[in-house]
């Protein structure tokens, strides 16, 4: 039964579960140069997948897949950025691939990478 008392005293904000979901969420790769993914974060799950990365489950807010549920693994740099800025469930994010680069790894192999810019709003 609803009452007219809208006090929040004694309430605690509930955590969104970060478990597996039984739906058709599509996994997306991180955006390459010139690509963008954007959505509202539904859950953040640390230490996910083969490389213990941050799994981000989100509802797309842009493009042809607007409204669809998507999953993406953030690399360590993006995960650190999320934590440093206090980004959490309910925030909208925009992740853009802004530049491509190459480097040589410790084994002498030529590798390619993408710089990405993460923007967010509560």
Descriptive notes:
It contains 1 helix and 6 strands. With about 120 residues, the protein is mainly β. The chain has one domain (about 25-120): Beta Barrel (OB fold (Dihydrolipoamide Acetyltransferase, E2P)), CATH 2.40.50. It has a 6-stranded mixed sheet. The chain is globular. Residues about 1-5 have low confidence and may be disordered.
Please describe the topology of this protein:
Layout: E1 26-27, E2 36-48, E3 53-60, E4 69-74, H1 76-84, E5 92-104, E6 110-121
Parallel strand pairs: 1-4
Antiparallel strand pairs: 2-3, 2-5, 3-4, 5-6
Give the total of domains.
1
Tell me the strand order in the biggest sheet. 1-4-3-2-5-6
Euclidean distance between termini CA atoms: 31 Å
Poorly predicted runs: 1-5
Oligomer: single chain
List the defining traits of the structure above:
mainly beta; 7% helix; OB fold (Dihydrolipoamide Acetyltransferase, E2P); 122 residues; globular; disordered N terminus; 1 helix
Summed up:
With about 120 residues, this protein is mainly beta. It has one helix at about 75-85; strands at about 25, 35-50, 55-60, 70-75, 90-105, 110-120. The protein has a single domain, classed as OB fold (Dihydrolipoamide Acetyltransferase, E2P) (Beta Barrel), CATH 2.40.50.
């Amino acid at each position: 039964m609803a009452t007219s008392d809208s006090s929040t005293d004694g309430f605690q904000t509930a955590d969104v579960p970060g478990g597996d979901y039984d739906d058709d969420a599509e996994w997306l790769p991180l955006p390459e140069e010139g690509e963008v993914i954007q959505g509202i974060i539904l859950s953040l799950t640390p230490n996910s997948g083969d490389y213990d990365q941050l799994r981000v489950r989100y509802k797309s807010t842009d493009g042809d897949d607007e409204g669809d549920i998507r999953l993406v693994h953030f690399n360590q740099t993006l995960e650190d950025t999320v934590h440093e800025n206090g980004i959490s469930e309910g925030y909208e994010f925009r992740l853009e691939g802004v530049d491509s680069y190459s480097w040589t790894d410790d084994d002498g192999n030529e590798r390619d990478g993408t710089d990405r810019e993460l923007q967010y709003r509560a």
